């Protein structure tokens, strides 16, 4: 009889005590991580290092941050990156309207010293905190910061991130250096629309997140779509796995992600589907694929091949 104790969370900050504990805790909130991914997350937590997750869209990068926030009992702060993202949208900006009102009141009273007035204008109460600063100043035990799709931002923004990623601090000219008292758990995601600078990668732990294996995807579908019959969940996992495999994957520009698998299973349940057949695949192809060319590529003949029993 085994005497192994069940995995548990370490006392204090709620950080999982082991990789196995982390896997179990993530599964409890509906996220099924393989051991390599769980090890990368566990080390990021223990070493207090940012974790860079790269992979195809829809493999569960953003969902991991959401699940981790639940496991750790920390608020999730999300910075969605895009081309042209500015510092004031990511870090902070000043409440100019409130500053102007303060300035007018001071002028009305007269006799205000210029240097003293400047100090009054640049106080923390006039500071509008954006995601990065909000994460640095989050109360105990800290926050989970998701810097989502960092590859969509431009190179100057990457350069700005270096101080934060390396030291969990930022510099505000009017206030000085702001350091985190409780370093945020930081996850960066990238769909590899472009390569990130080596300086960013060196400051992070790294993990390539691939599509899940069939059994893990089946577990995800079961957890997320409890109304689906066992046979239907298995068919969904099998069909999507074959779509992503060769030679079928060559027919499509982008394979369905885990999110599409789950949505497809929900749609099949809503249609009272008992068994996946070519007709229902054709009718629901727009859930699996988001591009016209890919929907068109899923021809009846190809669908029949995908649904055909596998040899062996």
From TrEMBL:
Residues 47-203 form the AAA+ ATPase domain. CDD domains: AAA. It comes from the Bacteria. Transmembrane segments: none annotated. Pfam families: AAA_5 (PF07728). PANTHER family: MAGNESIUM-CHELATASE SUBUNIT CHLD, MOXR FAMILY PROTEIN. This is MoxR family ATPase.
């Amino acid at each position: 009889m085994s005497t192994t104790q069940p995995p548990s969370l370490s006392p204090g900050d709620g950080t999982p005590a082991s990789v196995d504990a982390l896997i179990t805790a993530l599964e409890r909130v509906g996220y099924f991580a393989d051991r390599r991914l769980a090890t990368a997350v566990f080390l990021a937590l223990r070493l207090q290092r940012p974790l860079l997750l790269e992979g195809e869209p829809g493999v569960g990068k953003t969902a991991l941050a959401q699940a981790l926030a639940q496991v750790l009992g920390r608020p999730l702060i999300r910075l969605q990156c895009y081309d042209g993202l500015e510092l004031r949208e990511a870090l902070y900006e000043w409440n100019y309207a409130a500053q102007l009102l303060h300035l007018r009141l001071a002028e009305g009273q007269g006799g205000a010293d210029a240097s003293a007035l400047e100090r009054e204008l640049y106080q923390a109460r006039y500071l509008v905190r954006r995601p990065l600063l909000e994460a640095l100043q989050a109360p105990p035990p800290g926050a989970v910061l998701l810097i989502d799709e960092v590859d969509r931002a431009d190179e100057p923004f990457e350069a700005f991130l270096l101080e934060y990623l390396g030291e969990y601090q930022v510099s505000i000219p009017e206030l000085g250096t702001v350091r985190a008292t409780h370093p945020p758990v930081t996850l960066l995601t990238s769909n590899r629309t472009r390569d990130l600078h080596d300086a960013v990668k060196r400051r992070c732990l790294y993990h390539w997140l691939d599509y899940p294996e069939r059994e893990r995807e089946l577990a995800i579908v079961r957890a997320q779509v409890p109304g689906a019959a066992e046979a239907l969940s298995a068919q969904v996992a099998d069909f999507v796995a074959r779509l992503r495999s060769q030679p079928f994957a060559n027919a499509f520009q982008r394979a369905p992600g885990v999110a599409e698998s789950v949505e497809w299973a929900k749609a099949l349940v809503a249609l009272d589907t008992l068994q996946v057949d070519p007709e229902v695949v054709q009718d629901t192809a727009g859930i699996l694929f988001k591009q016209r060319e890919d929907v068109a590529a899923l021809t009846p003949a190809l669908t029949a091949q995908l649904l055909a029993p596998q040899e062996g």
